[in-house]
Amino acid sequence: MPxxxxxxxxxxxxxxxxxxxxxxxxxxxxxxxxxxKGFSAIGRLKKNGxxxxxxxxxxxxxxxxxxxxxxxxxxxxxCLAGKHRNAAKxxxxxxxRRDPDNRQHAFFLAACGHVIRREFDLVQxxxxxxxxxxxxxxxxxxxxxxxxxxxWDLIGPDTEDRINYRLYxxxxxxxxxxxxxxxxxxxxxxxxxxxTAWPASRSALYVMQFELKGNVSAIKLxxxxxxxxxxxxxxxxxxxxxxxxxxVVEMQTGATAIRTEKALHKRIATEMPDAxxxxxxxxxxxRVRSELYYQAALxxxxxxxxxxxxxx
Length: 312
Known about the structure:
This protein is an alpha+beta fold. The chain is built from nine helices and 13 strands.
């Protein structure tokens, strides 16, 4: 069957009067197969290999190749359009039209009055309660209002393309800073230029060693304002694992520390890709979910920190 783009605005585009019948007898196998698949074969068309079928559900007339009728499931575009409309309604949307550039997407009217573009599959999952649909326009306005309430102006997307971050400008000092949207909502952040919260406060990179089950030694590289406190009261809290602080490198600010830490992890992943410890080896033994390395990574980590210390 040719891949025609079905227009939702003209669901009755295929009418019997428009069909060019050949008058040749129909293949009995095609007639039987059509009946089993919810259609009634009404005639052969002059276009070689094509049949006219009537949908037994909505009585719409469709065209289909004989090979499609025999070996696949013919599609009634009218029923498909109704299915999409019903799914949209159940998801709280109104189906407007299909996307002419992508048959998997369509334009919908959201409850807020804005037009949004979504994939049919997402709308169907939303109708079943497995997903959700949010309006980008309303979400952007919500982010802008939240930022203004905290003394910041929303500029736009994060400069590093992190999906959960946005770039903001501090109204007090004019500094621009990327902040996680969740942190902007909760207020758990500070200005790295004029603030006294952790981004502007002194911090440190640390290296810790842990002894895990199975005689496995793990190395953790991270940052904290108080590495010893993090080791004792966070990472080892409520577990029987033993650990110790191996090294501390002071950093001027928390913002600098987190940027440097992320850069170091990227260097390790590039220069020693097999160094990362699988989560199954430390799960439940340390209160952390990632960024633990095998003992063999310690010389490389120390080397990277040696390069930092003069600048730090």
